[in-house]
Specification:
heterodimer; A: mainly alpha; Four Helix Bundle (Hemerythrin (Met), subunit A); 0% strand; B: mainly alpha; globular; binds copper (II) ion
Chain lengths: 195, 576
């Protein structure tokens, strides 16, 4: 096998390896969040009034801001990837910074949400309504922090590298993880705050 | 099947990179093996303490009793008893069986049997082991907390496992340890699944893989899907215990919205039933291979065996409700779960018949791995059949929570998996460490273990059928159970026999490591890929990536003219 051939060949294999690995990770995470939503459904269907008596719905302002932040984070990351694909490192870097800023503001909005819930008298021990919101947001923030660390890592370690298939693949995988979490957030937003 | 260029890495030189933070699947396999054997001893010791209490209530545990329980002069106190059966179950499942069969033999066998130089993600592999170590440290440290380790049973149902039922920090550490071990196993699963799909040697289709690899692959898939379910459950339990959320606390529904203790049972068993198959599938795979290897016959209906294992894997995701018949489920649900559970007997019967078909009229070599495999056939048969009574609603209502259940799941999970694991150790010892274990001692080990475990688990089913409940410190305070004391004493003597016979194994194992007879490259005369390379396997496994030309069980082909009765998978199938 000639060396050029071998390289292309390896590339296909790397692609396969990374996409199968990533699929398994996403399936695992889906089951994890799926279980949480299953629990949510049980609580929701077994409680007659929602939110339970004496509690009010959370103002949609902060959760909406959070939704915008994660979505923009996803969008900016994709734009950054597009520029990198076109070998434009400067714009790629700019949009990566923007998505990092979106990630940080996501965390900030969540922090504000927890504070505002405290002011409403909704603490972790106030009952299942508050428990659900706290647990879902904590778990989501924990995952998003991992994604954010990966964004930083992309900025520090990936960007300085030469743009090639391998580097772009790592970039894509990080993006996939973020998009997945954006999707999960969308469900959290609808089920826990809107409905 | 495309080839994947796999580089030969230079052999690691420092002690740390060679033995501690190794990326080599074979070293990680050995690490998991030592880890598993250690916890097998710990869990086994706990089992003996439980048995001692049931046979001789109020008597001091011999030798180490006064040292462990000075306050009671060596008698095991009731709260410690609850702790013991909780930790025994947890340790045996997550820290002994999982590391030995999945961690050690998964790591060792998968790359070698599919002709790869290593796993696809060596770093994840190393992380998987060290997460397991971290988890074990968390779990063991809980034994030294003020109120002791978790004591709510290995299932840790709320309300027992909430702060109300278990105020100590031990239960929290238990949940944390399970969460971390879940991460470890999920990392392993990502690796196993991807490796088997991507790194199979050229020419090796899925049905050319040994059944061992099939079993491990299906296990990895179940792990990746269902461990996260348990992880979510224990995470919410941790939140309840640490941050005061109310997921599993039943409360005043109208004012604050009620938590739901039974929800944990659902989540636990959605994971828990597949977990049974997670543990047994590798053993099934190994046994299916070993039976063919030592009957010197092709595995009967190999494709059917692989497909039945796959069918069972799929069905196992749909039957968890049979653990919860007594939770006031609607009869429509219980009957559906019962029917689905019974459906599993169909694929089980197929591959069980295939096992018998494999040994039928074979020229059986009664080596130690074969004895252990035949042992698995026997105990799994018993365990599987007794499961029918528990999967049926009417009989389960009577048997639920009795020792019949304990006997049943020990037959399927403990006995089968233990015997399968020992068979695997005796079989792959030459390739793992380059030495042979003493066959005579191995056979003595087998027979004593076999007699011991049948005494234990058969006895358990009898006392359970007679109505003895599990998890009771002293069941004989109830008059109707007092006549069961002799059988309980018999069970305990059987357990002591089984426990003591493990010293024969330990001696044999360590003796072989230190000055065992050097193994030849292919001592068992088997044709799968790992036997085409030197013993012990070199760090790069295969000098040349092998090309597979036939299946893993080509034995007794009448057209073979070279004096062997088997073919290597790298050889073209000889035809007349
Ligand atoms: Cu089950």
């Amino acid at each position: 096998m000639s060396s050029v051939n071998a390289e292309i060949h390896n590339d296909i294999q790397d692609e396969l390896k990374s996409s199968i690995g990533m699929t398994v990770i996403l399936v695992s995470l889906m089951m994890f969040f799926g279980t949480l939503f299953f629990g949510y459904a049980v609580y929701r269907f077994t409680t007659e009034t929602w939110p339970p008596m004496g509690m009010q719905k959370i103002n949609l302002m902060l959760p909406s801001m959070t939704t915008i932040a994660v979505s923009l984070g996803s969008l900016f990351f994709e734009i950054s990837k597009k520029y990198l694909n076109k070998n434009n490192k400067i714009q790629g870097k700019n949009f990566l910074i923007l998505s990092i800023v979106m990630g940080l503001s996501y965390v900030f909005f969540q922090y504000l949400l927890w504070r505002s819930m405290g002011q409403l008298g909704l603490y972790t021990s106030t009952g299942i309504f508050a428990s659900l919101i706290y647990a879902f947001t904590w778990i989501h923030v924990a995952h998003m922090s991992m994604a954010l660390i990966l964004f930083f890592w992309a900025y520090i370690a990936l960007l300085p590298r030469e743009i090639n298939k391998k580097m772009l693949r790592s970039f894509t995988n990080i993006g996939t993880f973020w998009h997945f979490l954006s999707g999960i957030w969308f469900f959290i937003f609808i089920f826990l705050f809107v409905l | 099947m495309a080839t994947f260029e796999q580089h030969i890495h230079p052999a690691p030189t420092t002690f740390l990179s060679k033995y501690i933070f190794s990326f080599d699947h074979k070293v990680i396999a050995k690490q998991f093996l030592w880890y598993g054997i250690f916890f097998l001893a710990v869990g086994g010791m706990m089992a003996l303490m439980i048995r001692w209490t049931l046979a001789f209530p109020g008597e001091a545990f011999p030798i180490i009793g006064t040292m462990l329980f000075p306050d009671t002069h060596g008698v095991i106190p009731p709260d410690t008893y609850a702790m013991l059966f909780t930790m025994h179950g947890t340790i045996m499942i997550f820290y002994a069986i999982t590391p030995i069969l999945i961690g050690a033999f998964g790591n060792f066998c998968i790359p070698l049997m599919i002709g790869a130089r290593d796993m696809v993600f060596p770093t994840l592999n190393m992380l998987s082991f060290w997460f397991a170590v971290l988890s074990a440290i968390i779990l063991m440290s809980s034994l030294f907390t003020p109120l002791g380790a978790a004591a709510g049973g290995w299932t840790s149902y709320p309300t027992l496992s909430t702060v109300i039922g278990s105020p100590g920090v031990g239960q929290t550490l238990w949940a944390l340890a399970i969460f971390v071990v879940g991460i470890s196993s999920t990392l392993g699963a990502i690796n196993y699944i991807t490796t088997i799909i991507v790194l199979r040697a050229p020419g090796m289709g899925y049905f050319d893989m040994p059944l061992t690899v099939w079993g491990l692959w299906l296990t990895a898939i179940l792990n990746a899907i269902f461990l996260p379910v348990l992880a979510a459950g224990v995470l919410l339990l941790i939140f309840d215990r640490v941050f005061g959320t109310t997921f599993f606390l039943a409360g005043a529904a109208a004012t604050s919205g009620s938590g739901d203790p039974v929800l944990f049972q659902h989540v636990f068993w959605i994971f828990g039933h597949p977990e049974v198959y997670i543990l047994i599938l590798p053993a099934w795979g190994i046994v299916s291979d070993l039976l063919s290897f030592f009957a010197r016959k092709p595995a009967f209906g190999m494709k059917a065996t692989a497909l039945s294992m796959t069918t069972i894997t799929i069905l196992s995701t749909l039957v968890y409700g049979h653990h919860m018949f007594t939770t006031q489920m609607s009869p429509l649900l219980t009957q559906s779960f019962m029917t689905l559970t019974m459906t599993i007997s169909i694929p089980s019967a197929i591959f069980f018949a295939n096992w018998l078909g494999t040994i039928w009229k074979g020229s059986i070599r009664f080596t130690s791995p074969m004895l252990f495999s035949l042992g698995v056939v026997f105990v799994f048969g018993l365990g599987g059949l007794t499961g029918l009574y528990l999967g049926t609603v009417t009989t389960d209502l009577y048997l639920h929570d009795t020792y019949f259940v304990v006997g049943h799941f020990h037959y399927t999970m403990a006995a089968s998996v233990l015997l399968g694991g020992f068979g695997a150790i005796y079989f792959w010892m030459p390739k793992m460490f380059g030495v042979m274990m003493n066959e005579c001692l191995a056979k003595v080990h087998f027979w004593l273990t076999m007699i011991g475990l049948n005494g234990i688990f058969m006895g358990m089913m009898i006392v359970g059928y007679a109505g003895m409940h599990r998890r009771i410190y002293n069941p004989f305070v109830y008059e109707y159970l007092q006549k069961l004391i002799p059988i309980n004493t018999f069970i305990t003597y059987s357990a002591i026999l089984m426990g003591l016979s493990q010293f024969i194994f330990l001696y044999n194992f360590i003796h072989a490591l230190l000055k065992g007879e050097k193994a030849s490259d292919n001592p068992w005369e088997v044709g799968t890929l790992e036997w085409t390379i030197p013993s012990p396997a070199p760090h790069y496994n295969f000098k040349e990536i092998p090309v597979v030309k036939c299946g893993p069980h080509e034995f007794g082909n009448p057209n073979l003219k070279n004096g062997r009765d088997y073919q290597y998978q790298t050889e073209q199938l000889v035809e007349g």
